[in-house]
Amino acid sequence: MTDPKNARDTDHGRYYLDPAGGPDLVSVTNVLGTSVNKAALMPWAVKVTVEWILDNRMEVARRAITDRAELTKQIKKIHRDARDNAADLGDRIHKAAELRLLGAPIPADPEVAPYLAQFDLWLANWGVDLEQHLVATEITVLHRRLGYAGTADLMIWLPTGPGGRLELWLIDFKTSATRPAKSVYPENTQQLAALRYAETVLLPDDTDAPMPKIQRAGVLNLRAKSHALVEMPAGRDAHRAFRGALANAVWHHAAPSTYPALLAPGQTVKPARRTTRKAA
Q1: What is the C-alpha to C-alpha distance for residues 114 and 131, in angstroms, rounded to an integer?
Q2: Cα 48–52–53 angle (5° rounding)?
């Protein structure tokens, strides 16, 4: 996950500070992370863990006898390490794409290079002239009235209209080392709709500007050997669905984690038992 300027991590996930001084705004990805059941992650976690065990079966067999406790800890965190490594690579790819769009130097990174090459190929295939067609990259958008914010990876003009007429696209980059380039998740539509129908964009000096009128939205999947721009139906119906997820996420973030137990008539709470530690 990238680290936008005004974003901050909280006990309930990412929120954005409002430079205008209003309440913090929950991030779009935080909303979907809270409200959308990622059922696909469980089989993936099992697969990653089983593959590691099979690849290291001799070590596992030995340590199951000699180092069982530490081995168990290591196995339990395999899928978390894999997730964090994938997220780190995704962040580096996002940053490299942003630097390419801005015409800035890009640090050498062998892992990122194949993905960046696919991004360059995508720009070339669509005949993108960054001076003319790029509107914004990594720009924060706000919807103060509804209480959310997010960061758009790319706003760009592409010749997708009748007769090659330019249309303004909102595009989100997605990276993966394993998923096919044309694959997307349903919640990607809600994410794009939330960004598309924000009311305000935040300029680099933290002043406001009106949100541009987006004509089409999609996911640009970047893979090491392929890429695909997949258009998503990020319309008003998807935005209504996101608003439902938003209400659910805000409720969860505000809900207590414990509640007092109800006592039966005449029942009293026993005082906590005090223990005295003996002096050594």
Answers
A1: 24
A2: 120
* pLDDT value for 3: 75
106 burial type by CB count under 10 A (0-12 exposed, 13-18 middle, 19+ buried): middle
At a CB cut-off of 8 Å and minimum separation 6, what does 131 contact? none
* Cα gap 280→277, rounded to integer Å: 9
Q: Give the integer Cα–Cα distance in Å for 258 and 90.
A: 36
Q: How far apart are CA 172 and CA 279, in angstroms?
A: 63
Q: pLDDT (tens digit, 9 = 90+) per residue, 61-97?
A: 999 999 999 999 999 988 888 777 888 899 999 999 9
> Within a 13 Å sphere around the CA of 68, how many CA atoms are in the beta-carbon half?
2
**pLDDT (tens digit, 9 = 90+) per residue, 125-145?**
999 999 999 999 999 999 999
Stretch 245-268: mean pLDDT, rounded? Answer: 92
pLDDT single digits (tens) 164-183:
999 999 999 999 988 899 99
User: What is the Cα–Cα distance from 64 to 163, expressed in whole angstroms?
Assistant: 66
pLDDT above 50 for 280? no
Helix H, strand E, coil C: the string for the chain is CCCCCCEEEECCEEEECCCCCCCCEEEHHHHHHHHCCCCCHHHHHHHHHHHHHHHCHHHHHHHHHHCHHHHHHHHHCHHHHHHHHHHHHHHHHHHHHHHHHHCCCCCCCCCCHHHHHHHHHHHHHCCCCHHHHEEEEEEEEEECCCCEEEEEEEEEEECCCHHHCCEEEEEEEEECCCCCCCCCCCHHHHHHHHHHCCCEEECCCCCEEECCCCCEEEEEEECCCCEEEEECCCCHHHHHHHHHHHHHHHHHHHCCCCCCCCCCCCCCCCCCCCCCCCCC
